[in-house]
Each structure stands twice: as structure tokens, then as C-alpha cells.
């Protein structure tokens, strides 16, 4: 595909390749003139011009079409090796070939250019839609916590003496929650920026998955007062060589998504296993699950399910997928038969056991 793009942008290469192909086809037909008649040669050359018209610009293909007509006349139409045409029927046939070749070349390139403009327009519309989605998400997700922080600080400054200790603690709590929310959204934007720029460089080391998961659960404690997170440490797990910070971010985004969008009282279960050199992590909940016709879109950037609670930019699961792919791994989601959704993260990683690691 890269070679074709270079040819499309280089007129000299189009002339060389076009006339070269016509020459090779004409030479092959000339050497086989006893097996095929000159009418068949016309069809073969027309086919070649039509195929080239799908790739080349209009001026090169027009000149190639004229050249193919002259070659067919000189080498194939009786009497051969002259531009003189012997019969009125052949004059008409040559004229028709000439006109058809030019029209075919012209209209094929016009159609291709029109299709290209349609694709460009669709890409622009898609980009504008994506930009508007991002702008709307950011305007809400960044402005809301900033407004909360500014409002709480103003209240503390203006009414510090009048406020009770309980009211002050409530305002401090609002500032803390808003600060964490703001930090999370900025972090998501920075992570997506790294993924978009292919700037991910894994910082691999040996990690205990039990410890990573407990860290993620601890960091989500503030959001799980109405939920239950269940994880039983698996002492049989080896150490995995991976980027621990990115793995924590994957787990955090999935668990945070479950805490945000499942009903109060929902249970989130986490399980870890390993198969040969693969680390397999399953995160399941007993919420409502995903609509079957929307489940394939949950990892798209800025995508949020219709009629969901406000909050979030729709980047969390997309980032989780990107970080998994950075490990040459995968992540998928499916609805459980008993209700709810299950995310499965598979990460290829070297393994070793603690005793072996300590001996090293």
C-alpha cells in the first residue's frame, strides 16, 4: 500500500510504469500474433488502461491511453508497421478504440477522485464529531471539579470564622474528591496522548499480581462504599515480568468503570490465573451488563453508552485496551449468563517463582 501511495504522488513514476506495462503487454501480444487476432489485442490493451486509470492521475493516464491506441494501430491493425488503416471497418474500430480509451481513462479517474473527496469529507466529519465529543466531555469533566474546588475554597476563605468544623470537613472532602476526579481525567488524557503518539515504552520488572490488585482495590475504596469488591489472593501465582504501572491502570479503569455504572449493591469479583507464559485476569460484576448491539463499541475512544449516568470522558476502557496491546496482550468483554459483564485481560509475560527470584 505504501508503494502505491508513492506512485500516486509521483507523476514520473506513473509515466514510466504505465508506458512500461503497455509496452510489455504489446510485446507479448506481438509475439503471439499468430495465436490471437488484433481485435483481442484491443480488448487486452483497454483492460490495461482501465486498471491503470484506477491508480494514476488523469494526465498520465490520458497520454497512456493515446499511446496504447497508436501502438495498436502501428503494430496490429493491417497493414502493420504503418499508421495507415486498410479498411473502413478498421478505421471505425480504431476510432472507437481511441474514443473509448480516452473516455474510460477520463471518467475512471474522475470517479476515483470523486470517491476520494467523499472519503475525505467523511473523515473530516468524523474528525469534527470526535473533536466536538472531546470538547463537550472536557468542558464538563474538567470544569465541574475545577468549579467545585474554586467554590469550596471561596467559601472557606469568606466564611472561615462562621463555618463549623463539620462544614469545613465537608468542604475539604469536596475539594479532595474533585481534585482526584480532575487528576484522573488529566491522567486519562495524557495516557491517550501517549497511545496516540506511539510513545509507550514498557518499564518491565517482576511483579506480584496479588500486590498489584490489592493496590488497585485500595485506590478505589472511596468509590466502592455502595459496592463490594471480592478478591482472594492466589498464593500459587508466579511473579510476572511486565509494566506494573500500566497493568494497574488497566485494572483501575475497568474496576472504576464497574463502580461508576453498575447499580448500588453490585458485587465486583476479580480472579487471576496463569497459563504457561500468559497472565489471565478476569473482572466480573453482577450489574445489568451491556446491550448486545453496543458491546463491540465499549473500547472506542470517547464512547459512552446511551442513558448512562453523567461523568467520565469515555476514555477509560479505550486506554485499558491500548495498554494491554502495548504488552502484546488483549482485552475483551462479554455479558454473563447470570447477569452482568465480564472483562478478560490476557497479558503475555515471563514468569518466575519467588524462591527462584530471591536466589537470583
Automatic annotation (TrEMBL):
MF term (GO), any: phosphorelay sensor kinase activity
TM ranges: 15-33, 39-56, 91-109
EC number in record: 2.7.13.3
Highest taxon above the source species: Bacteria
InterPro entries reported for this sequence: HATPase_C_sf (IPR036890), HATPase_dom (IPR003594), His_kinase_dom (IPR005467), HisK_dim/P_dom (IPR003661), HisK_dim/P_sf (IPR036097), Histidine_kinase_KdpD (IPR052023), KdpD_sf (IPR038318), KdpD_TM (IPR025201)
SUPFAM superfamilies: ATPase domain of HSP90 chaperone/DNA topoisomerase II/histidine kinase, Homodimeric domain of signal transducing histidine kinase
Subcellular location, principal: membrane
Catalytic activity reported: ATP + protein L-histidine = ADP + protein N-phospho-L-histidine
Name of a matching Pfam family: HisKA
Subcellular location: Membrane
Designated name of the protein: histidine kinase
Species of origin: Salinimicrobium marinum
